[in-house]
């Protein structure tokens, strides 16, 4: 981990505090009473971070948590923008990747935030993908029992998913995300310009979560995605609008159930199968990244729903077709190196956080945009379904 | 750290779920909306833990966090009581003392709670003094992003202070309690029988915090303490009533300001001076324990208030007299080995969490039960006061 401090330059000409000339970002409000906040989505938000933050709070200092990649790409830009608004900043960098969501790195980040003299009126900025957001968010929740957090997600996955909703955390030896906090951000700045730095594979993986929101409860959004997919991948207004619609979808679910007592579980569509696939592939990103696992998981949830007689098989085929058009996998046969044995898959599913009384909870669907929570699925029916999936060559 | 699991015995005769024959404990309600909870105070509450917990929630399992001392004294009793109500329990023991409030032990406790398969409908029980309460409370706040916490404080200090109000945390290299969470308990069971296991010094030290509540805003409680001190030290009804009154006092302040934005700072009466004394004596409990530091700190806050012309010097003398009657120190000269130099004391105070813009925030008083928050005390007046305190031989 590295740190570098930067004082706001007093030599620079003061920046105008209005957004004259800057394009107006899309704005999604997350209605959580005293913890309500806004998600701004658009081009060039990093350069305006200082003035946008100053509209909601008056911090004197910020700790900018990054990984080594986002430090190279974005840290100076954000630090300069804060400095121009009189906000002192320190950059705290961790190694990229899931392994940084550990107790050790959490300790390092907390201590670095304290060493940077971030007080209860100051803030922590998470500038990066899901790992940085989860780790920096949990540190922000913990230092001085909670300092304000600004999420600045730089991947499509983080912009539509992990930066919204307040879940933060690190991994336990016993499972992912088992230690953490619900800590809602004070503000989310999703700079769509950052997405131009993503690899095609990373962008596609994030798009799997976009499709997920449509599948949960937005059938018209799914139709729109079918029509606009190429535009979204090309960038521009359709991309920002897709991100905003996902944030609206997640915000509505989170506002109804902040701490996942009930319907927030709908957000796990595709994740019960997806987590099992990540498990049996050893969390090896060369084989399968999270979004790809979610894509296969969503398609499986629809095929399982069809197999249980809940959904029309044509709906499952429509889901697969859209994922394929986006270049995403949708079948176990698409996993490089194979998806393991029936035994390995069922064992991985039994470990899922959402298991109660030995039977997993699934998010199933009666059709596109008509998903629901199903507890107590019979293990025998699950095994039969997985057997047929393993036999299928997609 | 050690763990032991115990299954509820199915052979035992079922206990009556009513409290027939058991004395009715005192009950203090902490009004925090959706996070409201009750503090029960009385003899024999450990033996009734299972039935009392079952009145508010239906956990299947509990992780009982203890230190090696409270494991010996109380763990079996609580585990048996839970088992009789059908609640499986695992005992998680840490070493006694402040050094257990570390990142390392926090990780061990979180992992042990997860290994004990404590789910989001189960609970963590903190069975011990302030260290166990702070550590287990932070682990409970973090595991699965928050499981229910039952505080079972076993020291007078914990019963009147640290088990009430939701502050949890561990120590940073940069200061005490700098990393943690606000996590309100679901229930507090203060078994006054546990206090009979305390040394006379530990009991006295806890009594300093009892006096503090009276000094903040309860002048009649102070008169009552002057009249009942001997009875409180002897045990029985006066002791339980004193504890209940402290809980009422703290509950009122916490309900008005859960996250210490403002008046919750009144609870720091005696602590700005007290923390500096703990610092200059190297947190050496052989020389000074926290409650003794608070006793000296409260007396100093009243003498400082008198020196600033805010309070009648007779009020400061009355505070000193009561502390002396309880066997507590009230002057720097009472610190074994001395209270350090003027420079060491002022440096320690400048490090306090409550310093803003270089000048410490003090809790001062216009008289007994008439304390207030004073920001921006002039450093010169503080230095003059500390000089005179160091010259005084008490």
What does this structure look like?
The structure is a homodimer of 394-residue chains. Chain A is α/β, with parallel strands linked by helices and 394 residues long. Chain A folds into 2 domains: 2-196, Rossmann fold; 216-391, Dehydroquinate synthase-like - alpha domain (Dehydroquinate synthase-like, alpha domain, Up-down Bundle). Chain A has 13 helices and 12 strands. In chain A, strand 11 and strand 12 (371-374) form a beta hairpin. In chain A, helix 9 packs across helix 10 (290-307) and helix 10 packs antiparallel against helix 11 (313-325). The longest helix of chain A has 20 residues, at 237-256. Chain A is globular and about 60 Å long. The A-B interface holds A 103, 106-107, 110-111, 114-115, 141-146, 167-169, 172-175, 178-182, 259, 353 and B 103, 106-107, 110-111, 114-115, 141-146, 167-169, 172-175, 178-182, 259, 353.
Question: How would you concisely characterize the structure shown here?
Answer:
Chain A is 44% helix and 18% strand. Chain A is α/β, with parallel strands linked by helices and 394 residues long. In chain A, helix 2 links the parallel strand 4 and strand 5 (88-94).
């Amino acid at each position: 981990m590295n740190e570098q401090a930067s004082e706001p330059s007093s030599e620079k000409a003061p920046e105008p505090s209005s957004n004259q000339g800057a394009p107006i970002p899309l704005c999604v409000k997350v209605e959580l009473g005293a913890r309500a906040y806004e998600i701004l989505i658009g081009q060039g938000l990093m350069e305006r971070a200082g003035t946008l933050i100053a509209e909601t709070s008056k911090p004197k200092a910020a700790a900018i948590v990054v990984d080594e990649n986002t430090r190279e790409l974005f840290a100076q830009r954000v630090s300069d923008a804060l400095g121009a608004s009189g906000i002192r900043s320190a950059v705290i960098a961790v190694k990229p990747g899931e392994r940084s969501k550990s107790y050790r790195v959490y300790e390092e980040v907390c201590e670095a935030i304290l060493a940077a003299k971030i007080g209860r009126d100051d803030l922590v900025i998470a500038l990066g993908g899901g790992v940085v957001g989860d780790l920096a968010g949990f540190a922000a929740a913990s230092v001085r029992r909670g300092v304000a957090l600004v999420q600045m997600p730089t991947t499509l996955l983080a912009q539509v998913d992990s930066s919204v909703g307040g879940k933060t955390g690190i991994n336990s030896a016993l499972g992912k995300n088992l230690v953490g906090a619900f800590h809602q951000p004070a503000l989310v700045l999703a700079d769509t310009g950052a997405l131009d730095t993503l690899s095609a594979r990373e962008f596609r993986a994030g798009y799997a979560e976009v499709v997920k929101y449509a599948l949960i409860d937005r059938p018209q959004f799914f139709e729109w995605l079918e029509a606009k997919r190429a535009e979204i991948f090309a960038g521009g207004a359709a991309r920002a609008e897709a991100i905003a619609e996902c944030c609206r979808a997640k915000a509505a679910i989170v506002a109804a159930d902040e701490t996942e007592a009930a319907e927030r579980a709908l957000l796990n569509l595709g994740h019960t199968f997806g987590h099992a696939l990540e498990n049996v592939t050893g969390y090896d990103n060369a084989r399968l990244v999270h979004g790809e696992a979610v894509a296969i998981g969503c398609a499986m949830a629809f095929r399982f729903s069809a197999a249980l007689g809940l959904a029309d098989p044509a709906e499952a085929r429509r889901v697969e077709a859209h994922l394929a058009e986006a270049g995403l996998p949708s079948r176990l046969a698409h996993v490089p190196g194979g998806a393991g044995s029936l035994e390995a898959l069922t064992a991985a599913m039994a470990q899922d956080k959402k298991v109660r009384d030995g039977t997993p909870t699934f998010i199933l669907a009666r059709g596109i945009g008509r998903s629901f929570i199903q507890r107590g699925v019979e293990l025998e029916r699950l095994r039969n379904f997985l057997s047929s999936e393993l036999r299928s060559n997609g």
